[in-house]
Amino acid sequence: MLNFEFHNPTHIIFGKDTLKELSKQVPQDAKVLILYGGGSVKRFGTLDQVKTYLEGRQIFEFGGIEPNPQYDTLMKAVEIVKQEKINFLLAVGGGSVMDGTKFVSIASTYEGENKEELFSYGTVPAEVAPCLPIGTVVTLPATGSEMNNGGVITSRLGKLAIFSPKAFPVFSILDPELTYTLPETQVANGIVDTFIHTVEQYVTLPSEARFQDRTAEGILQTLIEIGKTTIDNPTDYDARANLVWCATMALNGLIGAGVPQDWTTHSIGHEITALYGIDHAKTLAILQPSIWNVRREQKQAKLLQYAERVWGISEGEIDTRIDQAIKRTRDFFESLGIATHLSDYGITEEGINDIVDALERHGMTQLSETGEVTLEVSRKILEGAM
Ligand code: NZQ
Ligand code: ZN
User: Fold this and answer.
1) HSE-up of 45 (CA within 13 Å, CB side)?
2) Do 95 and 54 lie in a common domain?
3) Ligand 1 close to Cβ of residue 153 (< 6 A)
4) Pairwise CA distance, residues 171 & 136, whole Å
């Protein structure tokens, strides 16, 4: 097992009727900015409930954070924070709202004039931006943003990740019932995003991290068990609760501690979203089968472990077992209603050049757990994903 540090300070409040806990978690004297997306939380009544539980505090609102949150939009929230001397941020929504709120938290406490400079840090040190405290109310289980310190923001520079040791939410409320109103395709996205977060930290190189491996396999098996059920029966509480908790646990640092991590799928996927606006999870479903096909030798040991422990494939030649595991994975994504080829989304061979150019511009030239996914390998992966 590799050396690691693990620190996760987020207080999780999980279950039915937990929204009311807001009244205890947000300080009485807080000046709160509630941030939300395009209006689903208004339509389904969540925002009204949130405001009821925050009674007594000074409340401001900022709506309109778009899926794949935009820098220019978030900078308007930063202005409100400064003008109104806000001292607590409450994100009510999915990954985009939570990520956007983290950026607002970081940018509001960064003294530099040009907040775009923050992207050059990758991980922004606490002395550069001490961050405002954040709480979250999760309405879409997918990104794990509710229990990690990262966010992905789109600006003129591209769709870029930003981290800060201070950007962990102080608390996150996870009431699975708040997610019942999600359209089917967003639930499918959540399942696939969680699946890929898990394999980015698991289908890498063997490192004798048995607990991490078995926890990753547990998340994958749970997703396979409940995926279709929670799409077809959105109000099946237990199925949805399992999805919500898997999404959080897949990207809160637990399964990634002490193991090599890949993140090729996400790095190429972010470029595809930035260029073509395809949902984050859908880009991952397109890329993952091709990545495993192209890198089957480097990942052989973990692919065989995945085939056996997750799909029960233990007989036959090595390549046949790997082929079967890739096929079962693709079939699983497709069974959730997610198409897995670039051509299904109207991307042509020419589009591949644009994606490779964007990777080059962003320095994504040595991806994966070994750094050997060069631009040439990325091109092969994209060609295999047509
Ligand atoms: O904007 P509203 O009107 O709220 O509608 C949203 C949005 O259109 C809707 N929605 C959310 N909750 C709902 C609901 N509709 C009905 N009922 C509800 N309860 O769903 C749509 C998508 O929301 P979004 O937040 O964009 O989705 P998701 O949670 O999948 O987040 C995607 C973003 O997170 C980033 C992605 O790159 C992308 O920008 N990621 C963040 C990560 C992190 N912070 O660790 C890791 C991930 O790998 C990912 O990159
Ligand atoms: Zn993701």
Assistant:
1) 5
2) yes
3) no
4) 7
Residue nearest to atom 20 of ligand 1 (CA): 186
Interface predicted TM-score (ipTM) over 0.85? yes
The answer to the question of residue 4 being in a domain is no
Q: Which of 114, 146, 178 is the last residue of a domain?
A: 178
CATH of the domain at 247: 1.20.1090.10
Q: Which of 145, 161, 178 is the last residue of a domain?
A: 178
Instruction: Please report, for the domain that includes residue 21, its CATH number.
Output: 3.40.50.1970
List the one residue out of 341, 332, 201 whose CA is nearest residue 266.
Answer: 201
| Residue among 300, 306, 267, 269 at smallest CA distance from 287 | 269
| Ligand 1 contact via 176 beta carbon (within 6 Å) | no
- For ligand 2, the distance from its centroid to the CA atom of residue 239, given in whole angstroms, is 21
Ligand nearest to the CA of 270: 1
Query: In this structure, are 145 and 202 located in the same domain?
Result: no
Residue 281 in any domain: the answer is yes
Name every residue whose Cβ is closer than 8 Å to that of residue 188 and which is 6 or more positions away in sequence: 227, 231, 281, 336, 337, 338
How far apart CA 56 and CA 137 sit, in angstroms, is 19
- Record the pTM: 0.98
Domain that holds residue 270: 184-384
37 lines ligand 1 (CB under 6 A): yes
Q: Does the Cβ of 179 fall within 6 Å of ligand 1?
A: yes
**Tokens 């999805």, residue located:** 243
280 Cβ closer than 6 Å to some ligand 1 atom: yes
pLDDT tens over the chain, length 386 residues: 999 999 999 999 999 999 999 999 999 999 999 999 999 999 999 999 999 999 999 999 999 999 999 999 999 999 999 999 999 999 999 999 999 999 999 999 999 999 999 999 989 999 999 999 999 999 999 999 999 999 999 999 999 999 999 999 999 999 999 999 999 999 999 999 999 999 999 999 999 999 999 999 999 999 999 999 999 999 999 999 999 999 999 999 999 999 999 999 999 999 999 999 999 999 999 999 999 999 999 999 999 999 999 999 999 999 999 999 999 999 999 999 999 999 999 999 999 999 999 999 999 999 999 999 999 999 999 999 99
For residue 274, what are the CA distances in angstroms to 69, 80, 269, 381? Answer: 11, 27, 9, 18
Domain count for the chain:
2
Q: Is residue 309 part of a domain?
A: yes
3 inside domain: no
161 and 63 share one domain: yes
